[in-house]
Design goal:
Blueprint: E1 2-6, H1 11-18, E2 24-29, E3 37-38, E4 41-44, E5 56-59, H2 64-77, E6 84-86, H3 87-98, H4 103-108, E7 117-120, H5 123-128, E8 138-140, H6 148-161, E9 171-175, H7 192-198, H8 216-220, H9 228-237, H10 240-243, H11 263-271, H12 278-281, H13 285-305, E10 310-315, H14 320-345, E11 351-354, H15 359-362, H16 376-390
Parallel strand pairs: 1-2, 1-5, 2-4, 5-6, 7-8, 7-9, 9-10, 10-11
Antiparallel strand pairs: 3-4
Helix pairs in contact: 6-13
């Protein structure tokens, strides 16, 4: 089977690593590049694509919105829709194989013992906490970019559908990202569509209709899903065994375990640190009010399971270089964060474990894969540290 890769970004390498052995990459194309060859293959300008014979054209562009725009462009050129494989549909297929868009079911439907602990939150917790290094039977349900609203949705789903599986629950760890977490609503960010689509939250779009980053047409099409014919095509094009993780409950594939933060990345950040994000620069009062309500609902839902469950709010450290650069702007957020915590503790029983100043973790480059996230070895060290606090 002959294919063209459309798009020259880094995800092009990911796509190629997943291709079956019977797939031949004829060449590459892109909307903007003006090349004769690329990666040792012929480069085709978009208007040249109709003049060659190929079976599939794979759009190697991560962002759903940009991928859809290229789909439309190829359609206008006269390329049959059946020949086009957009990256966002491949990723949906990949997530389905990993069962990460129905992660709760894939974990809780098996015959393993009941949960004694669960982890909710976003990428810091998803990557930074390794359940098997906690003494009890912990499951990690955290997902990249997840806010408090979607953690609440997860928790309610577990309570409603797996009451028997949580009857022995003793701990809930809630990854709180950093001090701006109450100011964060993923449905209003540029990553909203990707987060909702890839994680199977199409029924829970939250404030997406108010998101100025997306057109009404795109929002209305959020229920786009794979049909059986597309899944069969993907089965023929991509290696299923390579896609599925060894352990559905944890983030890392084997090839991701040894990633270590590059010294040059630290140098570049020291010289030219990235600007502050909008949630760091602006106070979104409505978002904060909503999140305080969701946070209290999470606490209430947990304690309804069993009033003796210990709830731990965890803040996982970024690399020290990042933490140090962020201190000036985060000082006001830290005060605001702990004001909310203080008020909430008057009504609910929980503890805060703030590890952001723990330099035995944050100062060691080999603990991190980038300035934000722990790597596998760092996650093991952090989890063992967390385990001491659980004891």
């Amino acid at each position: 089977m002959k294919c063209i890769i459309y798009g020259l970004s880094t995800c092009r390498q990911q796509i190629e690593s997943y291709l079956n052995d019977n797939i031949t990459v004829l060449g590459y194309s892109d909307s903007f590049a003006n090349l004769e060859s690329y990666n040792g293959k012929k480069f085709y300008r978009p208007n040249e694509l109709l003049s060659i014979e190929f079976d599939k054209i794979i759009i190697a562009i991560n962002k759903v919105v940009d991928c859809i725009e290229v789909e439309k462009r190829l359609d206008k050129l006269g390329i049959q829709n059946s020949k086009i494989i957009p990256m966002y549909k491949f990723l949906k297929y990949m997530y389905k194989l990993k069962k990460s868009d129905s992660l709760i079911d894939s974990i809780l439907q098996d015959e393993k013992p009941n949960l004694e602990g669960m982890i909710l939150g976003l990428s810091y917790g998803a990557i930074g906490i390794v359940p098997k290094y906690l003494d009890l039977n912990f499951y990690n349900f955290a997902r990249g970019s997840q806010d408090l609203y979607y953690s609440l949705i997860q928790l309610k789903y577990i309570k409603n559908n797996y009451k028997d599986k949580i009857s022995d629950l003793k701990y809930v760890v809630l990854d709180m990202y950093t001090y701006t977490y109450f100011n964060y609503d993923v449905s209003l960010t540029k990553n909203a569509f990707d987060f909702i689509y890839y994680n199977g939250f199409e029924k829970y779009t939250h404030n997406l209709s108010d998101n100025v980053n997306f057109s009404r047409e795109l929002i209305d099409n959020i229920t786009l899903d794979l049909n059986k014919q597309e899944e069969l095509i993907f089965d023929n094009v991509f290696k299923r065994d390579y896609i599925v993780r060894e352990d559905m409950r944890y983030y890392f594939n084997k090839e991701e375990i040894n990633n270590i933060l590059d010294k040059e990345e630290i140098k570049r950040y020291n010289i030219n640190p990235l600007g502050y994000s909008s949630i760091e620069k602006n106070i979104y009062t409505n978002t904060e009010k909503e999140n305080i309500r969701y946070f209290e609902n999470i606490l209430k839902e947990i304690l309804e399971i069993d009033s003796n469950i210990q709830i731990l709010l965890v803040l996982i450290p970024r690399h020290k270089v990042k933490e140090d650069k962020m201190k000036s702007i985060e000082s006001k957020w830290k005060y605001r964060f702990y004001e909310i915590i203080s008020q909430t503790k008057k009504k609910y029983n929980f503890e805060v474990l703030d590890f952001k100043e723990i330099e035995e973790i944050s100062s060691v480059r080999s603990n991190y894969s980038d300035l934000e996230h722990l790597n596998y070895n760092g996650a093991i060290k952090f989890t063992k540290l967390l385990s001491q606090y659980l004891k």
